[in-house]
Design goal:
globular; mainly beta; five-stranded antiparallel β-sheet; OB fold (Dihydrolipoamide Acetyltransferase, E2P)
């Protein structure tokens, strides 16, 4: 079975100058628990910092998933 659409909610739990460790949870949450992923910092389209929330979104009509960042409180749409 292949997921055609999904949203992963990730929190950066550590990073260095090259890589970030991200804890991912499914949205909505399932009983499987979180997963850990290692991403290149260049794949994250915002400032990398511990506690930063990112999203990996894949829509069934899109070929690839997209990584986005949570808006800061002072950012406007």
């Amino acid at each position: 079975m292949v997921l055609k659409s999904f949203v992963l909610v990730g929190t950066i739990i550590s990073h260095d100058s090259l890589l970030s460790t991200v804890e991912f949870n499914l949205n909505p949450a399932t009983n499987g628990g979180p997963a850990i992923g290692i991403l290149h910092n260049t794949a994250i389209p915002c400032e990398v910092s511990v506690g930063k929330v990112i999203y990996v979104v894949k829509h069934e009509k899109s070929e690839d998933a997209v990584i986005t960042c949570e808006l800061e409180k002072d950012e406007s749409r």
